From TrEMBL:
This is FAD-dependent 5-carboxymethylaminomethyl-2-thiouridine(34) oxidoreductase MnmC. It comes from Roseospira navarrensis. Pfam families: DAO. Residues 9-27 have a biased composition (Low complexity). One of its GO terms (molecular function) is oxidoreductase activity, acting on the CH-NH group of donors. It is an enzyme of class 2 (transferase). The keyword Cell membrane does not apply. Its EC number is 2.1.1.61. GO terms for cellular component: cytoplasm. Residues 1-27 are annotated as: Disordered. Coiled coil: none annotated.
Amino acid sequence: MPSDPRTWTLGRPARAAAPTTWATPPAPAGPGAHVAVVGAGIAGCCVAEALTRRGGGRVSVIDARGHPADSLPPHLLGLLEPRLEKDASTAATLHALAAPAAAALYDRLATEGRNPWRGRRGAVSAERGRRDDAWRRVVVDRMGWPTDRLALLDRDAATARIGVPPAGDSVLWHPGGGALSPPALLAALLGETAVIPAVVASITPGEGGGWILRAPDGAVIVTADAVVLATACETVRLWPAAHLPLRPTRGQVSVLKAAGPEAPPRVAVSGAAYASPPVQHTDGSWWRILGATQRPWRPGDGDPYTPRPEDDARLRAALAEGWPALADALATEPTAEALAGLRATTPDHLPLAGPLFDADALAASHGDPLRKAARTLPPIAWPGGLFTLCGMGSYGLSTAPLMADLVAAQVTGTPWPLPDPLAEAIHPARFAVRALIRGRPVAP
Ligand SMILES: Cc1cc2nc3c(=O)[nH]c(=O)nc-3n(C[C@H](O)[C@H](O)[C@H](O)COP(=O)(O)OP(=O)(O)OC[C@H]3O[C@@H](n4cnc5c(N)ncnc54)[C@H](O)[C@@H]3O)c2cc1C
């Protein structure tokens, strides 16, 4: 457990002389440690991959649904596309770093014979309203990326790529983006790592250190030196002491029977809705995904996983806003199936990546000093060896690899892929720290 006083910078100007920032994690698990990753979604699979790559000892992955290659619908597709902004906010910087890192990892998997990409490569975005042609020009200038990563396409060039014209004068072209098969991607990330099919009901400290993970009947699933909870909204139930402000947002996609391999859009497009390029199924048929709705979900709202017919109409209407010609073309492609799920979102739309903590203990030890803007603070009593990566919102495929690499670096004590201020911006304790600075309760 570290014992040096920390300088807390969140919510205040960073001090140049800060010895360490408040986001410094607990002591890393030692070499050869056994790390249990709970959750085999994109977050957990990226953490498992990063731990293995960083020499993190033995890695066990546990998921209630078993191996994702067996449990996820084979028709599911997700889009990788950077979320770009014209300012240099922390969120914009994180997204601008994360998406190329994700594409590079997925490209590496492809070169190793485990290709997660589906359909023709590249993604086009054309949002409407404020994000007009002038906005896109500013974004391209500000990013300064090479044209094999980002380019502005005029209407004719966009039409040639997509197969139908966009509504506006230009679109952003992301050659490194595209459509991914989540079952193939997660299997590729896991590689040889097996998934233990089990529901984790509790996580308790072991007598001699480490953690004990138990099933609902009390049986021990594994004991581990360190644990990473990559369990989306379930993280709140598994570690309630942190009072994490995770909110479920329901989403639904439509699986369309595509008219053929050249039917537009030939590359992924996005705006108020997104559409993938046509992808061929093993039976020779062509399909695509039209996505995705976004609605906050509360326990009284019914089963979130049951598809709702009205959502298909909503998606087609949303597509028509930004891509009227495309919406007309897709009117001839029937909806074969709909798939629904929950996203875990946070109030600032950034993930939670880093050590877990006890918010009430933090309030007791740090409430007063934080409120009084004390320059140094008592050491944080981290429950050592307990981490999370959750709250991935709508961009898990883009953000998970970089965020997982940060968590794996903290677990193993290896160099971080992000500077301290960016790690603070996604630290799981940031909401509790902000609440304490403002003299508010730590529970949301
Ligand atoms: C309709 C829809 C469309 C989307 N489209 C895109 C897209 O195009 N691009 C994109 O980047 N993102 C997209 N997203 C968002 C993306 O799916 C999420 O960001 C991502 O799934 C989050 O991954 P995760 O690993 O954090 O959570 P999850 O995928 O939810 O994985 C969590 C895992 O933890 C397991 N688990 C939970 N509790 C326990 C427990 N107690 N014991 C054992 N296992 C447990 C679950 O079984 C699950 O497998 C979409 C989301 C939805 C709903």
